[in-house]
Design goal:
Structural class: alpha/beta
CATH superfamily: STAS domain
Number of domains: 1
Number of strands: 5
Number of helices: 3
Order of helices and strands: EEHEHEHE
CATH topology: Transcription Regulator spoIIAA
CATH architecture: 2-Layer Sandwich
Length: 96
């Protein structure tokens, strides 16, 4: 199961598994984001390469506007995925 929604403070909350089956939903949601935003991964259990692609696409689009994504509360497994893929140098990331 996957969920993406705005939290009370404007942070974008992700939970569950962001894999290929959920990418259309994530892409639709993140496509509406048009300013610098914080993604809270506290409840995200897994992210696939397809999920990374959606984040990269969003980051590139926001960077053209001088904005970007900050990712917080990243668990060790997902942090390793970002590090091994080189995405840790593309995003501002804070571990849990």
């Amino acid at each position: 199961m996957f969920n993406i929604e705005f939290g009370e403070n404007g942070t974008i909350l992700l939970s569950g598994r962001l894999d290929a089956a959920q990418c259309a939903r994530a892409e639709e949601f993140l496509g509406s984001v048009d300013s610098a935003s914080t993604l809270d991964f506290a409840r995200l259990e897994y992210i696939s390469s397809a999920g990374l692609g959606i984040l990269l696409k969003t980051q590139k689009r926001l960077a053209e506007k001088g904005a970007g994504l900050k990712i917080i509360n990243v668990n060790n497994h997902i942090h390793d995925v970002f590090r091994y893929s080189g995405f840790h140098s593309i995003f501002e990331i804070e571990a849990a």
